[in-house]
Amino acid sequence: MSPPSSPELFCVELRTTRWAELVEWYRRALDLAVLMRVVDDGYALLAAGGAKLAILARESPGPASDRVSLGFEVAHLDAVYERLLAAGADVTPPRPHPEGFRELVVHDPDGNTLRVFSWPPRA
User: Fold this and answer.
1) Residue 20: its pLDDT value, please?
2) What confidence tens digit (pLDDT) does each residue in 42-83 have?
3) Are 55 and 38 in contact (CB under 8 A)?
4) DSSP-H helix ranges across the chain
5) What are phi and psi of 42, to 5 degrees?
6) Is residue 4 one of the residues assigned to a domain?
7) What are phi and psi of 63, to 5 degrees?
């Protein structure tokens, strides 16, 4: 298969000192499937729809940024909310957004901001 003619986002990389904990959190709290896990290298690749999330172990990853958030579209926002609560996440309840979708905001164990949203069912 040849590469696309224009750039295609393959993955977003998160660097962390708590690699195993972060991999497990994304797997359990957001139900992302682990495509690859290389423990010796501190590398995991998780499926996130058409894109991927890579989690890399690093000694000095730097702080979480207020400039970046990860946006996840889901079919059942209330179910994700319950799963996040069960995982012990500090999560805002789902709320309507002026653009017509519902969303919640949560931070992963490293403080990265995630916005999880769903559109209303189609009639």
Assistant:
1) 96
2) 999 999 988 999 999 999 988 888 889 999 999 999 999 999
3) no
4) 19-30, 77-86
5) 65, 50
6) no
7) -75, 160
Total domains in the chain come to 1
pTM, entire model: 0.87
In a domain, 37, yes or no: yes
pLDDT at residue 122, as a whole number: 75
Assign residue 88 a region (left: φ > 0; alpha: ψ between -120 and 50; beta: otherwise). left
Residue type, 48: A
Q: What b/e string do you get for 6-18 counting C-beta neighbours within 10 Å, with b at 16 or more?
A: eeeeeeeebbbee
Counting beta carbons within 10 angstroms of the beta carbon of residue 68, is it exposed (0 to 12), middle (13 to 18) or buried (19 or more)?
exposed
Q: For tokens 């709320």, what's the residue?
A: 95
CATH number of the domain encompassing residue 75: 3.10.180.10
The CA-based angle 41-30-122, given to 5 degrees, is 140
Query: What is the residue-averaged pLDDT of the chain?
Result: 92
